[in-house]
Amino acid sequence: MPGKSADKKPSFSDTFSVVGGNFDDAGRVSSRIKGILKKMCLPFEVIRKAAICTFEAEMNIVCYAQRGDITLSVDEDRIVIEVVDQGEGIPDIDLAMQAGYSTSTAKIREMGFGAGMGLMNIDRYADDFDITSEVGKGTKLVMIVNITEGS
Ligand SMILES: Nc1ncnc2c1ncn2[C@@H]1O[C@H](COP(=O)(O)OP(=O)(O)O)[C@@H](O)[C@H]1O
Ligand SMILES: [Mg+2]
């Protein structure tokens, strides 16, 4: 049966690229991903959690990286959102995860971003969240949202 193989290949997978510094287009990929999840008729709360995580990760590429790729994979049990960027990287992840910590510029804050809550919100809304980074190279996030009825 398609999408039901024993090796658990995702039934849906697609990759979208995000351009750093392009605030005119910011949020485009997360809206697109939210639309895809809505078409799959997943529970409202599952879509909401995935959409918040994707939006925050996309904004971080726009704000702090040159470019990045967001891969959405969905199978029966879970949504996996993998975000890989080429950018400045994060020197201290524990610090970056703290509420209110931000290296955002005045320009970013003028546009209403950079309050320092993004990574904290991802950690809160993802059922599983992993972040790794290399300074001068880039950052990788793996965010998982479990698909459970009534969640
Ligand atoms: N993809 C990234 N590349 C480089 N630095 C990042 C990235 N994501 C987050 N950061 C760093 O972590 C800080 C905290 O991120 P976040 O919690 O999303 O808050 P904000 O984006 O509002 O600053 C950022 O200010 C930035 O210094
Ligand atoms: Mg952010």
Q: Give me the strand/helix succession.
A: EHHEEHHHEE
Level of helix content? 25-40%
Structural class: alpha+beta
CA radius of gyration is 15 Å
Quick structural summary:
This protein is of the alpha+beta class. 34% of the residues lie in helices and 29% in strands. The chain has a domain at 13-92 and 124-146: Heat Shock Protein 90 (2-Layer Sandwich).
Overall description:
- With 151 residues, the protein is of the alpha+beta class.
- Helix content is 34%, strand content 29%.
- It has five helices and five strands; from the N terminus they run βααββαααββ.
- Strands 1-2-3-5-4 form a five-stranded antiparallel sheet, with helices on one face.
- Strand 4 and strand 5 form a beta hairpin.
- The chain is globular, with a radius of gyration of 15 Å.
- The model has no long low-confidence stretch (mean pLDDT 94).
- It binds adenosine-5'-diphosphate and magnesium ion.
- Adenosine-5'-diphosphate binds next to helix 2, strand 3 and helix 5.
Q: Tags for this entry?
A:
151 residues; alpha+beta; Heat Shock Protein 90; 5-stranded antiparallel sheet; 29% strand; binds adenosine-5'-diphosphate; binds magnesium ion
How do the strands and helices of this protein lay out in sequence?
Blueprint: E1 12-19, H1 28-39, H2 44-64, E2 65-74, E3 78-87, H3 93-97, H4 106-110, H5 118-125, E4 128-134, E5 138-146
Antiparallel strand pairs: 1-2, 2-3, 3-5, 4-5
The structure holds adenosine-5'-diphosphate and magnesium ion.
